[in-house]
Amino acid sequence: xSGIPTDDGPITNITLSGADAWxxxxxxxxxxxxxxxxxxLFGLHDLYVNPGPAVYGTWDxxxxxxSVGAIEINSWNRYLLxxxxxxxxxxLNSADINSTGVTQLINPIExxxxxxxxxxxxxxxxxxxxxxxxxxxGLDVLTPAQEGSLVYTxxxxxxxxxGGWQVQRRPGxxxxxxxxxxxxLGDVITVEGLRIEVVGHxxxxxxxxxxxx
Length: 213
Prior knowledge:
2 helices; mainly beta; 9 strands; 5-stranded mixed beta sheet; 4-stranded antiparallel beta sheet
C-alpha cells in the first residue's frame, strides 16, 4: 500500500487510541498502554496469546502492558530496534556447542552500558534461544525471588499474538504469568537439547553455561 497521503508525505503505519487508553487495571497503565502501542509502530510483536494461556508472561511491555512488574523491553527486541549492538550479544550456533560448553557473564538489561546483554543461540534458520539477566532496576519491579536469568525461545515463523515467544521455566515454576520463571543460581534446565545452568549471580549480573549433555 502507498499509505495515506498527507502534506508531510504518506503515512503507512499508525496507532489509534480509544477508551482502552484509560484502562485502570494497574496504577499508571495509561502510559504503559500507549508505549505498548507505539512499539507496534517500530514493528514489535504482541507477545501475549489471544486466545489461549500465556506463553511469555509479564516480562516485556509488549506482552503485558498493564503490569507493574517486569516491563522493560527484552534483549532480543532491543537488538531488533538497534538499541544494543552486535558486540553486546554472544551469538552461538547450537550445532557448534559441545559438552564443554560456553560460559558467559550477562549484564542486566535494565542497565545502560556497553556490556554483554544476552546469549542468543541459533536453533534453526527461523528459531533462536535467548538468555538475559533481569533485576529489579529501571522499569522492572521484581522481588529478589523473581530476579534471575530469563530464558526464552523465539520462533520467527509464528506471527504476532500467536505464541512465537515462549519463556522456559525454572524448576518448580508454576505461576501462569511466568513471574517465577527466571532461573536462580544453581538452576539447570534443558531446552531443545541444550543444557542451561546458572553458575554465577552477583551485582555484575548472571553467569550462565550453555552445553550439551
